[in-house]
Every structure is written in structure tokens, then in C-alpha cells.
Amino acid sequence: MANVAIVYHSGFGHTLRVAEHVALGAASVAHTQVSQQSVEGIDLEALHAADALVFGAPTYMGSVSAAFKVFMESTSRLWLQQRWKDKLAAGFTNSGTLYGDKANTLDELCCFAAQHGMLWVSLGLLTNGVRGDRDDPRHLNRLGSSLGLMTQSDIDSGPELAPPVSDLETARAFGRRIAEAAIRWRAGQTGSSG
């Protein structure tokens, strides 16, 4: 059984919605246990027990949210102990505009994982670009990210309407990829197949 933990901050509910879809994708993979935690109430023992940690934060002013940054900085003692070394890591972000400097947020999340000695799992999807209907679930990775998952929510839309269907389907595909990687990684470490 692989254990995937999703750690997120959501200021307005959009990033939470993305986290839920990443979790649904991961949970759709057999032999995977998935948990979600907001940075406002972290259970560190659950994170220590996870095979893969997925970090999610909104992009505010071209960077991770302040609440997520507080969480990152709170892990410095864990860094000294190398508690998360050789765990898998991945990341996602949401912003109100198509670009919004989300790449910088993914870079921060990836660097944070690298500081902890973790191994990064990329999005692993070719881009479909922004052409076509953004509510068409076949248009995965419409924002063209490689490093991690990028989603976009119109600034004036509540989380019940945004991100669009294509971004949420991309989140599910990302969750499946992470769970499948965690199963392979765990099997390789234990010498078993599940």
C-alpha cells in the first residue's frame, strides 16, 4: 500500500478544490491510501509516514502564499534530521490569471522538496494549449506546465465554478501519476509489488 499525503493552503477555496481532485486521482489507483491536510492543521506524523508528499499553494503575487511559506519554514528541524529524504514529492498551484507567474511557485515547491532531499515527480503530460473549450475534459494541461500542475480560476469565480473542468481533469491525471509512482517507488524499496 502506497501512502500519498497532500499538503495545501487555500485562501479562497480554489486550491482546495484542486487538492480534492488530485486526491481523487490518486485514490483511483489500487493499493493507494490518500490523505489531505491544510497547512493550518498539520499532522507531521502522517507526513512522515507518507511515501509521497504533494504540495499545493495558490500563487499570490508570483509566489507561494504566506501561509504555505510559514509551513515550509516550520520544517527546518525536519530538514536537519532529513526526515523526508528520499520520499517522492510533487506540487501544484492555482492563480486567477492564465500565467500569474505560477512557474515561480512550482520552482519554490520543487526547491523546497530538494532541500529536504526528496525526489520530484513532474506533471508528465504533453500540453494541449489554451485552444479549444476549457471545459472540455479532453484538454489536459491546457496551461502547458511540465514541472507540476498549474490551474487557473477566474478571479471573480467562486470555487464551485473554477477551475474549469479541463484543469480539474488534469489534477486527477496528476494524482494518478503520483500514486502510480509511489507504488513503484515503494515496491522498489521493499522488494515487493504492492
Description:
Helices cover 39% and strands 20% of the residues. Strand 5 (88-95), helix 5 (102-115) and strand 6 form a beta-alpha-beta unit. The longest helix is centred in the last third of the chain and has 26 residues, at 165-190. It is α/β, with parallel strands linked by helices and 194 residues long. The chain has six helices and seven strands, in the order βαβαββααβαββα. Strands 1, 2, 3, 4, 5, 6 and 7 form a seven-stranded mixed β-sheet that branches. The chain has helices at residues 14-27, 44-49, 66-74, 76-81, 102-115, 165-190, and strands at residues 2-8, 32-38, 52-60, 63-64, 88-95, 119-120, 149-152.
Features:
7-stranded mixed sheet; single chain; alpha/beta
Question: Proportion of β residues?
Answer: 15-25%
Number of helices: 6
Shape: globular
What is the N-to-C succession of helices and strands? EHEHEEHHEHEEH
Tell me the Rg in angstroms: 16 Å
Assign the structural class, choosing from mainly alpha, mainly beta, alpha/beta, alpha+beta, or little secondary structure: alpha/beta
Most strands sheet: 7 strands, mixed
Spans where pLDDT lies below 50 across 5 or more residues = none
Mean pLDDT level: 93
C-alpha termini separation: 6 Å
Task: Estimate percent helicity.
Answer: 25-40%
Compute the number of strand runs: 7
